[in-house]
Design brief:
With 264 residues, this protein is an all-alpha fold. The chain has one domain: Multidrug efflux transporter AcrB transmembrane domain (Multidrug efflux transporter AcrB transmembrane fold, Up-down Bundle), CATH 1.20.1640.10. The chain is built from 8 helices and 2 strands. It has a two-stranded antiparallel ribbon. A hairpin with a 2-residue loop joins β1 and β2. α5 runs antiparallel to α6. The longest helix has 36 residues. The radius of gyration is 31 Å and the shape is elongated. The C terminus is likely disordered.
């Protein structure tokens, strides 16, 4: 080091120079110095990891005065989207119910069709478990899309039951409970082929996504998986449960009085 008068002074006489590891760059957040710790998570969901990590950090780490800790990145994005889903999902269910009511003009029929949603969730959860997928935003998007498919297949099932019932009533074949059984079974059997075609077409359209391995495949698989699993269980449970509910409704509804009058 050279002074203004030309005198040369060795740096070792002025300071002790050492090499030490430090941040590659200085960052700030909200006017305060910030440091980032990056964590790669494999084999578990981000939300569960952060929840457990918060408990460990709160127990083991004592932050000095003036320091703060925030969990950001993918977890922060997930929290923001989750708040939106709290509005989107109920609104989707309400909109589906309103459209069903406008189509059927019956609150009971609309509720029966809406039963397809929990029916399909059974298969969606099973397939997610078998594939080892965790709940994520992509999975919730698949669930929302599955609701629309459930409403479609449920309306078809109820339509065939109504058509079979009305045809039997017009022909005068509803004189006993056995006749009602036969009419409902006839309507359910007629529904197997078109319902199977609907489920098969939707499933085959989603299978290339489930087998893909390219860029973005992991995300798209989590969107498609709930739809594939949910379609199969809704197909089976609608064929088995819908006719039974429809029978109980007609048996304890207006058709009960019709049986009494025909018997007298």
């Amino acid at each position: 080091m050279t002074t203004g008068k030309g005198v040369q002074v060795p740096m070792a006489e002025l300071a002790e120079i050492t090499l030490a590891n430090g941040p590659a760059m200085i960052r700030d957040e909200n006017g305060m110095l910030a440091g980032y710790v990056y964590v790669d998570i494999t084999g578990r969901d981000v939300g569960g990891y952060v929840t457990e990590a918060k408990q460990v950090v709160a127990r083991e780490v004592k932050l000095p005065t003036g320091y703060s800790l925030a969990w950001s990145g993918q977890y922060e994005n997930m929290q923001r989207v989750r708040e939106r889903l709290k509005v989107v999902i109920p609104l989707t269910v309400l909109l589906i119910f309103v459209l069903l009511y406008m189509n059927t003009k019956s609150a009971f029929k609309s509720l029966v069709v809406m039963l397809a949603v929990p029916f399909s969730l059974v298969g969606a959860v099973w397939l997610l478990y078998l594939l080892g997928y965790n709940i994520s935003i992509a999975v919730w998007v698949g669930m929302i899309a599955l609701m629309g498919l459930d409403a479609e297949t449920g309306v078809f099932m109820l339509l065939f039951l109504d058509l079979s019932y009305e045809q039997a009533r017009k022909d005068g074949r509803l004189r006993s409970l056995a006749d009602l059984h036969e009419a409902i079974i006839h309507g359910a059997v007629k529904r197997i082929r078109p319902k199977l075609m609907t489920v098969a077409a939707a499933s085959m359209g989603l299978m290339p996504i489930m087998w893909s391995v390219g860029t973005g495949a992991d995300l798209m698989k989590r969107v498609a998986a709930p739809m594939v699993g949910g379609l199969f269980t809704s197909f089976l449970m609608e064929l088995l449960v819908y006719p039974a509910i429809y029978l109980l409704w007609k048996k304890h509804g207006g058709q009960k009085a019709a049986f009494a009058s025909s018997g007298s």
